[in-house]
Design brief:
Chain lengths: ~100, ~150
């Protein structure tokens, strides 16, 4: 039996639940945006900050490239990397864009 | 206070109030740094080594010792644009050098003050902004009378 993860995944990204809209390449898409506390190491020292990520169905952002811009909550972020979970979900690791 | 502590404090005093980092110069800081604390300078003591071929007799009959105290000065910043961040680090580096050598005695009779090396800028891409640091390694040569570690002498 083949499980259609794509069909299931769409229920994870309902706008009346945790998802919100973001834009990429002129498209308005749905994803779950997180801005969690982050501690980054530089040598022997730790810098505090936040780590923005966008979780979205991989099909939403097929072909997205490092450095491309997504906009969410009125802020532009550039893609550092895309991490796919192998089940149809992509985690977009983001940094603030200039 | 031990001569090494006096040297660390002298570095902190000289490096406090730079245009780029202002009051954010910290000695032996163990706490993480938030963005409100950046850009910043961290001052940490390194090894303290005796220069054996510079032992000398003092006029009071005591033995004069020459020591070299290593001091690490780290500049840290965060920036949206990593090129801008790197330029900020290099500006801080210039300000540190000017501040240290305005009076190389650091006001505490340091005999020789040198910048011995500067690390390559380190970049962290974790998080919303790029974190950057650069380490400036210094050596402060000073003299004490043997058995009197709290008094730096000329």
């Amino acid at each position: 039996m083949v499980i259609n993860f794509n069909a299931d995944n769409k229920y994870l990204f309902q706008l009346n639940d945790f998802a919100e809209r973001f834009t990429w390449s002129g498209q308005s898409l749905e994803g779950i945006f997180d801005l969690e506390f982050n501690l980054s190491s530089l040598g022997n020292f730790d810098l505090e900050g936040t780590a923005p990520t966008m979780e979205t169905p991989s099909g939403n952002v097929a072909g997205i490239q490092q450095g491309e811009i997504i906009a969410v909550r009125g802020v532009d972020y550039k893609l550092v990397r895309e991490e796919q979970d192998g089940l149809g979900i992509s985690f977009l690791i983001l940094q603030k864009a200039v | 206070m031990n001569a090494s502590g006096q040297i660390a404090n002298a570095f902190k005093a000289v490096l406090t109030g730079l245009t780029t980092t202002g009051a954010k110069a910290y000695r032996a800081r163990s706490l993480s740094l938030g963005e409100a604390n950046l850009p910043a300078i961290l001052i940490n003591l390194g090894a303290d080594s005796l220069v054996e071929d510079e032992l000398s007799g003092l006029s009071d009959g005591g033995l004069g010792e020459t020591w070299v105290q290593e001091v690490s000065v780290v500049a840290l910043t965060k920036a949206v644009d990593s090129e801008v961040g790197e330029d900020t680090l290099l500006l801080i580096k210039s300000e540190i050098e000017v501040a240290l050598f305005t009076d190389p005695t650091l006001g505490i009779s340091i005999k020789y003050l040198e910048i011995t090396s500067v690390s390559a800028p380190e970049i962290s891409t974790e998080g919303e902004k790029t974190g950057l640091s650069i380490e400036i390694n210094c050596a402060a040569t000073y003299r004490i009378k043997q058995g009197v570690p709290d008094a730096i002498i000329n």
